Amino acid sequence: MFTVAIIxxxxxxxxxxxxxxxxxxxxxxxxxxxxxRDYVSQRVSWRGQEFTVIDTGGVVFDPKEPxxxxxxxxxxxxxxxxxxxxxxxxxxxxxxxxxxxxxHYLKKFDKKTLFVVNKVDSDKHLSETYAFKSLVADTIxxxxxxxxxxxxxxxxxxxxxxxxxxxxxxxxxxxxFRFALLGKVNAGKxxxxxxxxxxxxxxxxxxxxxxxxxxxxxxxxxxxxxxxVDTAGIRKKANVTEAIEKQSRKKTLHIxxxxxxxxxxxxxxxxxxxxxxxxARDIETAYIPTIIIANKSDLACTLTDTKECSEFFKEKTRExxxxxxxxxxxxxxxxxxxxxxxxxxxxxxxxxxxxxxKRIVSxxxxxxxxxxxxxxxxxxSRRGKxxxxxKDISLISSDPLLIGLHTSKxxxxxxxxxxxxxxxxxxxxKIKSRPLHIKIIK
Length: 442
Description:
The protein is α/β, with parallel strands linked by helices. The chain has helices spanning 14-22, 68-81, 97-107, 123-128, 151-163, 189-197, 243-255, 274-286, 306-323, 344-356, 363-376, 415-429; strands at residues 3-7, 40-46, 49-55, 84-90, 113-118, 140-142, 177-182, 215-221, 224-230, 261-267, 290-295, 331-334, 390-397, 401-407, 436-441. The strands form three sheets. A six-stranded mixed sheet has the order 2-3-1-4-5-6, with helices on both faces. β14, α12 (415-429) and β15 form a beta-alpha-beta unit. The longest helix has 18 residues, at 306-323.
């Protein structure tokens, strides 16, 4: 697909422009300097044509910035892959030395470039855009990304460029199975993301909270199309003070409704925290398949010592099952994203879950299980007396997995009985890392 990359220094409105194009809040937009640190791609449709717009991290050319070298490498990669560049300036602040450096920097790529001046909200700002002529010989396109002024003209310009570029016809693709890496700040999600896709797309750093935007990447594993999402780390509520972190956490919770599988990434070198437990509760309420990824195993045991790691993994498995019991159905995978230890197991498990969710459970199997279960675990009344309130069982839905338990109209069924029945049935059917819920039908 035709790709448009927005290039410019921080705080000129790149994210706002990308969001205006896509007509949705896909990236975090904020007046805070340098908010977008990873790149975010969105699909845009205009007059029957579609293209992908990429919102990049701001270019500052400042070696003192701790992440600047990493950001620069990624912007270089984006520019090389893009079909069209939008060089974005700011009418309010005028030309800066960074703008001049960016103009010189872009010349080496020999890419088609449209020069766009943002924040043109008045005639005064419009007159100030002519100063940018000193940077480029081409036409300058004035816009206001916030108000939408000039956006239609800019999209027409992009459309015109697209019409002159021969595009290969896209083969309709199967909808990918989408899974997300979720967890608290600095659990190692970005390093794991990069290890899985074998491409340094997300900035890795020991600075907590480096990933702010939701980043996704589509790829094929075997014959299975997959899409992996890296999310901003979820902080403790007391620490979520900035608007940016609140907005990012809201997106993380929102993404649970958009994915097929959740991967809870925990730092296994540390005890499971209340924050891990709260995120687990958020995931459980989404009612989707889940994997618990115990990351940073290299910090807790010597990976080459099989016996030492085996004992450690057994101990930690018991801790996880106890403290994250709400995710009793989830597979646990011990990995080290830094050392690339056992990471391939994740993709194999994801594919197995994608296959398992298509499985249909027959009525005969359910009926046979219930018959045997009621013999050893009969339901009881509030006073503890054995009662025959359960009459039948049925499959309501395979994906998500929902089982109907048919009872007498006035019959009482304790919550404890339902929970134990669900876990026992889950084990009996050998369900792969998917939750099983039971609905009472009277």
